[in-house]
Amino acid sequence: MENTEIKKETKKRGQWKEVWRRLKKNKLAMVGLVVLVLIILTALFADFVAPYGYREQNLSKITLKPNAEHLLGTDDLGRDILSRIIYGTRISLLVGIVAVTFSIIVGGILGAAAGFYGGVLDNIIMRIMDIMLAIPSILLAIALVTAFGGGLFNVMIAIGISSLPAYARVVKAAVISIKEQEFIEAAKAIGARDFRIIAAHIIPNSLAPIIVQGTLGVASAILSVAGLSFIGLGIQPPTPEWGSMLSNGRYLIRTAWHVATFPGIAIMITIFALNVLGDGLRDALDPRLKQ
Amino acid sequence: MYKYIFRRILLLIPVILGVSFVVFTIMFFTPGDPAQIMLGERAPAEEVAQLREQMGLNKPFFVQFFNFIKNALRGDLGRSLTTKRPVYDELMSRFPQTMQLAAAAVLVAVVLGIPIGILSATKQYSVFDMVAMVFALVGVSMPNFWQGLMMILLFSIVLRWLPSSGYGTFRHLIMPALTIGTSSMALITRMTRSSMLEVVRQDYIRTARAKGLSERVVINRHALKNALIPVITVIGLQFGYLLGGAVLTETIFSWPGVGRLMVEAIRSKDFPVVQGGVLLLAITFSVVNLVVDILYAYIDPRIKAQYK
Predict the structure, then answer these.
(1) Which residues of B174-196 are buried (b: 16+ CB within 10 A; e: fewer)?
(2) Tens digits of residue pLDDT in A202-239
(3) Which end of chain A is more exposed for a tag (fewer CB within 10 A), N or C?
(4) Out of A136, A148, A246, whose CB is closest to B145?
(5) In this structure, is the dihedral angle defined by the CA atoms of residues B295, B296, B302 and B308, taken in order, positive or negative?
(6) How does pLDDT run across B52-61, given as a tens digit for each residue?
(7) What pLDDT does A291 receive?
(8) What is the full DSSP assignment across A157-191?
């Protein structure tokens, strides 16, 4: 028993090592990974990296163009844009991670149940998902935030709910492809309970598509929250959220181009990093897709 | 074939009912009394109560939902709380502009995306391919509302080539259509390229080459047809994204469409308009996907064969 446990462990490690080896070969994905790590570090150490506080106003220095003192200029309240972008990484990453975690947990449970049990339950769950898919996800998020109000928590959950169907589908597909395999049959034969089969055998084996979907999902969640804030529904000032900074910059675009420009570049770099990493992970986790 | 089309149309009914239910439920639980909003904050309590009764707001949830559906079928989506005009009229006066924008954006995405994708695939790893792929990645990563602002900055403020907002001429359409269409174009480019690359490795392409067909015929007649099948699905799905993107883009460019109407309605807590807008765009999306599915069946003989 102990022996097999060890064997399984080494085999598992071997599998992830292999994925990492393939990922390392993908230069673009590695660029994405490095950028992402830098962004995460920026978020963690924002207090040390940012030259000014995110709500520190200086009314004698409003809408200054980029200069040596304020590398990316200041906004209409004299706040340092670079510092606000640096603190904004926290909000964006938080929203992305919480929204995606929510979608993975809820969507995962729904998808696993639909795939594992099939039949009526599958039908009910997937028809509900179809209905949700029929509403463009940003519209669903808008409707939810209109109903439950803005604010960080509501926005995260609204984005999480609006992207549920994608996760339910991915997990369901993964579960179906696994559940017919022999090792599941073996587990059933020795009398394992459904919950144990799902948690110990099916979920670990369907992680690959979830990881890919999750990585790309963080990117689209960050875009969604920026979009919601941009139309005034998301996170309220003075929280330094990239979308609301952009929204503010929109009104200043004729006089102070830099206010809207830099937060957008920050969003773009983050999304770019997540997208190339997600694509790279997809290729690395499923070599069959790459020819 | 007709059986397939008929079945797909029938399937649309539960989806639309479901969407209505979701949208209605969300708005039902929205805090804020529509009667109070309609009459203003200082309206006497009795008047508000009377209006509530009149609007059927005191009835149970399912009765209200049933009434909502009954009225919606007759084209009555309630009245705007701010303008007091019927929501249906408000939406319909804006809907053509939104469709115009979405159609222009799809056109941009398809007309540029597919050829670039094909060229990239046939010249894999060439300079063109690399440049196209980097552009595609950037296009997918850019928030479209930011792209819109940057285009205004460049083309309206610095170069003064195009109007920054408004509606009416072709010149007004260029920037909004590009803003909404870019990310779809990028996605379609990538999709076409990878689908093409997969197809050209198939045996039937080797056969076509082996029997001495010119490269052009092989690509145009044999590869392209098969490669475009998955791309068409993506175009249909992108349409929903485009309609969602219209909400932000119309706001930036002051484009008089459904999206901008909705944003204004959100600001003034005009829930019937938000509800109607979401419903209208979701139904449009479903209908577009239905059309795509039917087109799909025409293009892909495998589906046709199933319903012989």
Answers:
(1) bbbbbbbbbbbbbbbbbbbbbbb
(2) 888 888 888 888 998 999 999 999 988 888 888 887 88
(3) N
(4) A246
(5) negative
(6) 887 778 788 8
(7) 37
(8) HHHHHHTHHHHHHHHHHHHHHHHTSHHHHHHHHTT
Rounded to 5 degrees, what angle do the CA atoms A254, A256, A257 make?
80
pLDDT band for position B200 (cuts 50, 70, 90): confident
- Single-letter residue type at B238: Q
Contacting residues of A for B19, CB less than 8 Å apart: 131, 134-135
Residues of chain B with C-beta less than 8 angstroms from the C-beta of A123: none
- Name the minimum distance, in Å, from the CA of A231 to any CA of chain B: 7
CA distance A282 to B3: 38
Q: Which of A64, A6, A19 is nearest to A287 (CA)?
A: A19
Sign for the CA dihedral angle at A233, A235, A238, A241 comes to: negative
Q: Long-range CB contacts (< 8 A, 24+ apart) of A202-205?
A: A202/A112, A202/A116, A202/A174, A202/A175, A202/A178, A203/A108, A203/A112, A205/A174, A205/A178
Residues of B in contact with A146 (CB under 8 A): 26-27, 30, 266, 271, 274
Out of B149, B267, B282, name the one closest to residue A134 (CB): B282
The one-letter code for the residue type at B156 is S
| Beta-carbon contacts of residue B283 (< 8 Å; ≥ 6 apart) | B16, B19
Model ipTM value: 0.83
Per the CB < 8 Å rule, is B244 touching A136? yes
Residues of B within 8 A of A142 (CB-CB) are 247, 262, 266, 274, 278
Tell me which H or E stretch contains A83.
helix A81-117
Mutation for B interface: A85, A123, A131, A252, most B CBs within 10 A: A131
**Residue B129 contacts A where some CB pair is shorter than 8 Å:** no
Rounded CA-CA distance A153/A139 in Å is 18
Q: How far apart, in whole angstroms, are the C-alpha atoms of residue A268 and residue B85?
A: 41
What predicted TM-score, i.e. pTM, was given to this entire model? Answer: 0.86
Give the nearest partner residue to A231 out of B157, B201, B247, using CB atoms: B247
Strand, coil or helix: B79: strand
Please give the structure tokens belonging to residue A1: 């028993």
